[in-house]
Amino acid sequence: MAGELLRLIAGHPQLVLAAILSDSKPGAPVAASFPHLQSAYPELNFTDLDDIESLIRKAPRTALFSAAPHGVAAGIIDRLLSAAEMAGTRIHCVDISADFRYASAGAYEAVYKHAHGAPGRIRHFTCAVPEHLPTSPTPHVSHPGCFATATLLASVPLLALGLTDTRLFVTGITGSTGSGRRPSEGTHHPQRHSDLYSYGALSHRHVPEITACAKRATGIEAEFNFVPHSGPFARGIHVTVQASLKRQIGSAEALEALAAYYKACPFVRVTGTAPRVKDVATSNYANLSAVTNGTSIAVMSVLDNLNKGAAGGGMQWMNRLLGFDESMGLKSPAPGWT
């Protein structure tokens, strides 16, 4: 996620990268870890937490992006926010980890099975997909996970418009980059190539997060039955949400309802054809479509897991927190061939 954030910051017209933290490689060139960013950061080196804290104390206004691992991010963020508060400088943080996605330390600890790193900071963060909350009531934001983002984009309109029952069935397929850059059996390309398999069926850690975000957006306590899959591609997510309709509607009416719900959202597109991962991969766009058989509905949602599902959605939030247009630096289309 850090590499994708760096890529987006390099193309942002109003943000200037002051420093990037690495606790394992301080002083090493950023381009050595992210060779594809050599042209953007030819001389930038990783720095340590002390230097980051010093910069935040001196800068009048700071945008802090965190892509640290779950369980690590909270402590780092707390230290840096405290430094800004003590110095009287302005700071906004967008966290892409799970550390501030839950409303209480207890809810977080029930999922991640370890103590929260900064429970006193939780009230300063709001977790939501940008399309489901026009403004943040808090100075800092936690972006939902990539599976959660794709599922929520498909599910929230169904619940908010009262179209379906509150029991939803979700099938999701994600690319290997969703697990980060550290090699593992589940992300190793020869293991995933030409294969498709489920994992964490009906027990995935994103389910409580999805449930909480859906309730925040709609006020409805829904039941999500989620089966994730590992796909044989690197970038992208394809999610299908199915539910029983409260009244009979046709596919055309369902598409109209989705389009109306997202009419003011520049990065969500509703199409009459089945959405494809290649149409959105590497971009900040999400494509949705829907079909019904009169009594049931299926909503298909595709997005890029690193961009719209993480760094790009986080950039949307930071743009808003800083008073910029939310689409600033994010309008590049998908290449179509990846």
Describe the model:
The chain is of the alpha/beta class and 338 residues long. The protein folds into two domains: 2-127, 3-Layer(aba) Sandwich (Rossmann fold); 146-305, Dihydrodipicolinate Reductase, domain 2, CATH 3.30.360.10. It has helices at residues 2-10, 30-33, 49-58, 73-87, 105-112, 146-160, 189-192, 206-218, 251-261, 307-321; strands spanning 61-66, 90-95, 125-127, 140-142, 167-174, 197-198, 223-230, 237-244, 268-270, 286-292, 296-303. The mean pLDDT is 95. Helix 3 (49-58) packs parallel to helix 4 and helix 6 (146-160) runs parallel beside helix 8. The protein has a seven-stranded mixed beta sheet. Strands 1-2-4-3 form a four-stranded parallel beta sheet, sandwiched between helices.
CATH class category of the largest domain:
Alpha Beta
How many distinct folded domains? 2
Report the portion of residues in β strands: 15-25%
The N- and C-terminal alpha carbons lie at a distance of 18 Å
Structural class: alpha/beta
| Shape by Cα distribution | globular
CATH fold node name of the largest domain: Dihydrodipicolinate Reductase, domain 2
Indicate the low-confidence ranges by residue numbers.
none
- Going by CATH, the homologous superfamily of the largest domain would be Dihydrodipicolinate Reductase, domain 2
The order of strands across the largest sheet is 6-7-5-8-11-10-9
Provide mean pLDDT, rounded: 95
